[in-house]
Specification:
Blueprint lengths: L1 E3 L5 E4 L12 H6 L9 E3 L7 H10 L2 E3 L13 H4 L6 H10 L3 H4 L6 H20 L1
Parallel strand pairs: 3-4
Antiparallel strand pairs: 1-2
């Protein structure tokens, strides 16, 4: 899971197993950010449409922008906020930048700490390229 800013610079990274649902890892990723300032809004996909996550983010003062599942009857946001969902390509572009590092595409490391170190190094290189 990667938290990025509006320019696509990685701000936080969280690694876990492949089995947990994405919405359960959202708060851990938000806590793993390297900046002190908390984001005003988070743009996420349909996997983050969970009632408890909407409430937790609202209590933290973060506006969660995610499209609703078709089965949802109680909607938490209107179409105006969902216009910002069009900017989600920025996060997808950052994922593509991360996959330019071959070491991250094919996981050679057995230990999570070593893989996390390579991931953080890749995020630092992306940040240096974008900010310089």
């Amino acid at each position: 899971m990667v938290l990025v800013d509006g320019q696509g610079v990685p701000l936080g990274v969280h690694l876990s197993a492949a089995t947990p649902a994405e919405h359960t890892l959202a708060e851990a990723t938000l806590d793993a950010r390297v900046t002190e300032r908390q984001p005003d809004r988070i743009i996420a996909d349909k996997g983050y449409d969970a009632r408890y996550l909407w409430e937790r983010m609202k209590s933290r003062g973060v506006d969660l922008i995610a499209p609703h599942l078709r089965t949802r009857t109680n909607r938490y946001q209107d179409g105006r906020k969902l216009r910002r969902y069009r900017r989600r390509w920025i996060a997808e572009r950052t994922n593509a930048w991360l996959f330019n590092f071959r070491r991250l595409v094919v996981r050679y490391e057995r230990k999570l700490e070593v893989f996390r170190a390579f991931l953080q190094l890749a995020c630092a290189l992306i940040a240096l390229r974008r900010l310089a």
